[in-house]
Amino acid sequence: MKSSQTSSRKQQHVEITLSKDVSFRGKTSGFERYEFVHNALPEVDFSEVNPSTVFLGKAVSLPFLISSMTGGYKDAERINRGLAEVCAQKNIAMGVGSQRQALEDSTHHRSYSVVREVAPDIPVFGNIGASEVARLKDASPLKRLADLIQADAFAVHLNPLQEFLQPEGDPRFRGVLDGIAMLVKNLGIPLIVKEIGAGISAAVARRLIEVGVRIIDVAGSGGTSWAGVEILRRNGEVKKRGPQGGRDHAPVFWDWGIPTADALAQVVELKTRTRELFVIASGGLKNGLDVAKALALGAGLAGVARPMLKALEKGGTGGLSKELEVWEMELKGAMFLTGSKNLDDLQRQTLVRRTGVNE
């Protein structure tokens, strides 16, 4: 029964993100506050611009990551297969959705393992929620999940806001940091810690770094509001059960979180003391220019989820491939127009803060 509930919830999440407006309503990612200084004399041919990089020890053609989205129910196999096929074609990284269901039983294991089947060479990482990590006695369950997809790394997603708002949520977070510390020591592959749309602050990043985490995805606010997704799910449950009376506490949290650009700036600053820290920017990136700005602010990679899922559902793998080509052209355009031949050059560019824009 528990596994069935998890599968149903995962399916509802995807359906809501595709069919409803679950964007932040009064908050943006913050990247519109920054702009590059135009270089009218770039001294580089556009054909020389090279946005390739290395992630998890593997060369990738673009600093893009299709962020963790789904798995654990019947149609997720189709979705993950399509995402992975295009990631393999473009040689970019991918994360699978939460593997909680795969911990509960093996019914939908193939919805995860299909990723590695069709994308044998790209960086792939697994994913589990913080509340599950808090209850781990050892790393063996996550080692099995990593083996399921032959993972190059494993992500722990911090989602206290979502668990707080979920009708069937599990907001038990005492012991999460100890669980993360145990996994850093015992998992055997790199551990990524990520939020899912409310952002990671400098204070939280410091605590993660202290226990050995070296890859952080700030996953800030400004894109998909997972609070919004859960609020819509709650509303559906209320309609099913009939009027409950009283005012619901959930709607005031729709826009809760740290804008991605702000979270990124806070966490990147810690790289001055922890040079091996690798920071991923995700949450509300709308195009390749936003990716360029995130990289110039210090990210090593940029993660995107909902826009890619929508492209896949609208146009299949061909539609997703074309969408990624647009993002690539936008990124390479920003590199060319700043005289950046490679990502090292781009990360040395200065961004100008625009005053009076969503301050």
Can you describe what's shown?
The chain has 359 residues and is of the alpha/beta class. It has one domain: TIM Barrel (Alpha-Beta Barrel), CATH 3.20.20. Helix content is 44%, strand content 13%. It is built from 14 helices and 12 strands. The chain has an 8-stranded parallel beta barrel with strand order 4-5-6-7-8-9-10-11, surrounded by 6 helices. Strands 1-12 form a two-stranded antiparallel sheet. The chain is globular and about 60 Å long. Mean pLDDT is 93; it is low at 238-242.
Summarize the structure.
The protein is of the alpha/beta class and 359 residues long. It is built from 14 helices and 12 strands. It has one domain: Aldolase class I (TIM Barrel, Alpha-Beta Barrel).
Describe the protein's topology.
Layout: H1 2-19, E1 34-36, E2 53-55, E3 58-60, E4 64-66, H2 76-90, E5 93-95, H3 100-104, H4 110-118, E6 124-129, H5 130-134, H6 140-149, E7 153-158, H7 160-165, H8 176-186, E8 191-195, H9 202-210, E9 215-217, H10 226-241, H11 260-268, E10 278-282, H12 288-296, E11 301-304, H13 306-336, H14 343-346, E12 351-353
Parallel strand pairs: 4-5, 4-11, 5-6, 6-7, 7-8, 8-9, 9-10, 10-11
Antiparallel strand pairs: 1-12, 2-3
